[in-house]
Amino acid sequence: MSTPPTSIERSTLRERLRGMAMIWLVLFAGVVPVAEAVTAGDAGDDAPGTDFVFWGTPYYASDPCVRGTIVQLSMGILHAAAVLDGGDVVCWGGNFFGESNVPSDVGSGPSRIPAVQVSAGEGHTAAVLADGSVRCWGENEYGECSVPPWLGSPGHPVRSVHAAVYSTTALMMDGSVVCWGNPAAADCDPASVIPETGVQRLSVGNTHTIGLMDDGSIRCWGDDFHGQCDVPKGIGDRGHRVIAIATGFSHSVVVLEDGSVRCWGDDTFGQISIPSGTGTPTRPAVAVAAGQAHTVLLHEDGSVACWGMNSAGQTDVPPSIADPRRKPVRPLIDVVARGLGSGAIRTPGVPCTGDLDRDARVDGVDLGLILLDWGGDGCRSDLDEDGLVGPGDLGLLLSYWGRCGS
């Protein structure tokens, strides 16, 4: 597997492509580009209508073939999965156990059931379908893909599903929790710490789980070797109710109703050492995610902060989303993390034909990308969807030159 380019290399490549593409543009079409649209910065890998960017482990760096708007995204240890607006599921990255092989009966179309939510684990993927049932594919060594037969049947609909390392956990519509997989996994025993119902949201870590309750309090179960289930006193009380939760391998993170952040558990790599001025009532947080030993936070001002282990660059936030002074075309709405990877998601925009690098403009970089894919079946550049990148795709790109529907 080739090493993905760094942000500096990507920037250099973009500039080279711009120069090359101007020459090709004159030679092929004799077109003079119109004024460029406002740029969204280094958007990174994303999909039509949705802009997401990953940094850290290279397993997420591949460009997924996505036709449609991504409405929900999940990062696994070595792969990613997303649900599109029509109910299709797309997976990319690692596929060592078939975790990226989406079943043929999941998605839109005849004899298929659309997905509404997906979760990527270590070697398996799980999804909630529109009928309230659950499908699971990939590794099943510990029964993590052996979905209980009654789950999702009439009277037992599922709200969300969460793929961990060797287990899978489902949050039911009635607020109860069901877990299956490795019987030795401590995160599969919620009964002793939560009431029968009342769970609003789940976050599943390596061997522990946090449940956000209807009243804004939280419950934690599973491994507590590093204190990741020792919830600090006062969290969940009036004035300190929880609005967002995240679990890493051995640490826990929450956002409180005043926008402040609390972390506890393992701090070997500084993953619970919140940087000064980050996630405070004066600079509130709105979303949080946790990887193996790092934490990712989205501020209300749209900026992203990361701290903790940085062995794969997972805390090196791209400049375009780290600085609140930069105003992107589409603001960030969420952050994701898992293992050694991090990511951020922008608000959906109007799909822009020809904007292959998703920088809110159609220009020489996009032309260069089409020329690189010329003669192949590259999904990214096959704008007319005829299975081949050629003159038809070039014509479509040029017809949208300088315009973007963001």
Plain-language structure description:
The chain has 406 residues and is mainly beta. It has a domain at 66-184: Regulator of chromosome condensation 1/beta-lactamase-inhibitor protein II (Methylamine Dehydrogenase, Chain H). The protein is 11% helix and 30% strand. The protein has 4 helices and 21 strands. The protein has helices spanning 7-28, 319-322, 364-372, 391-399; strands at residues 52-56, 70-75, 79-84, 89-93, 115-120, 124-129, 134-138, 158-163, 167-172, 177-181, 199-204, 208-213, 218-222, 242-247, 251-256, 261-265, 285-290, 294-299, 304-308, 332-338, 341-346. Strands 1-21-20 form a 3-stranded antiparallel beta sheet, with no helix packed on it. A hairpin with a 4-residue loop joins strand 12 and strand 13 (218-222). The longest helix is centred in the first third of the chain and has 22 residues, at 7-28. The chain is globular and about 65 Å long. The chain starts with 6 loop residues before the first helix and ends in a 7-residue tail after the last helix.
